[in-house]
Amino acid sequence: MQHFDVAIIGGGPAGLTAAMALSRSLRRVVVLDSVRPPRNVFAKEVHGIVGLDGVSPGEYRRRAWDDLKKYGMAELHEVTGTDVTPGPEDGFTVTAEDSRPMWARRVLLTAGMVDVHPEIEGFGECWGKTVIHCPLCLGWENRDRTWGVVTGDPEFAATAAAGFSAWSDDVIVLTDGATPAGEWGGAAVVEGKIRRLHHIGGDLRAVELADGTVIDRQTLLWQLDQRPVPLIAHLAEHRGLAMDEDGYVEVDGSFRTSVPGVYAAGDLVTEAQAAVESAAGGSGAAFQIIADTGRPSGPSPVGYPSAAQP
């Protein structure tokens, strides 16, 4: 059985940033990067990370692993994690599909979330282009267009009424059939279930409601429902991993979960989801693991110079 200081389950910005911090702190790391497509597979570019702004998600990962290989401390296993069980000793046995079990002193969960796409004609073609989940991620690319914010949350609608004016001076709220009570903060609100998105090659042109009403819109900000990946759901059901009422992993201010020795960061702990936010969380979690565990369990890789060498 292979032994590691830390097993990172998830190979996105949170997991890769954590792997870098841990590698530079001489921790032996294994990254389990699921074979399923990442959430941002529909996006052409990653934004907000200085020095990497505009690279594709695939290029981001390639560059990250090129950087990690220089340290010789991290291994990539392209497998899907299936379980994390305590022991033996002060650590965990990590199992994965089509892979031998491995042991890790600590575990960091960065597996992200799964978006639940609505069954609406045209949604898939527009998602990640002109139907977006985050204004900080793709607002620039959709600036100076007519926007619709799909939400049934009056508080979020009030934010949209004023907060998104940097990208568009024409913002309305589409409730998609929800009729919640509360103040909408001055937002123009259109009720009605959405049944179709009119577009040309993913370039949104209009939203069609169930009653046949067609509303001209060029961009939709749509925060989808999400669910945890199967491993996280399994750990919540069988290993005592605490989740909040919205399905996100509960962590304290130091990225510790309810399971001692297991940490979590990135999209699976918060609705505030962006590559740069995930990277920051991964870095913070790595520093906490380093502080909690003290010295690494093994020596530097053979042939890698120590800090004392010129």
From TrEMBL:
Coiled coil: none annotated. Residues 4-145, 203-276 form the FAD/NAD(P)-binding domain. InterPro entries: FAD/NAD-bd_sf (IPR036188), FAD/NAD-binding_dom (IPR023753), Ferredoxin-NADP_redctase_2 (IPR050097). Transmembrane segments: none annotated. It catalyses: [thioredoxin]-dithiol + NADP(+) = [thioredoxin]-disulfide + NADPH + H(+). Residues 290-310 are annotated as: Disordered. Keywords: Flavoprotein, Oxidoreductase. One of its GO terms (molecular function) is thioredoxin-disulfide reductase (NADPH) activity. PANTHER family: THIOREDOXIN REDUCTASE 1-RELATED-RELATED. This is FAD/NAD(P)-binding domain-containing protein. It comes from Streptosporangium minutum.
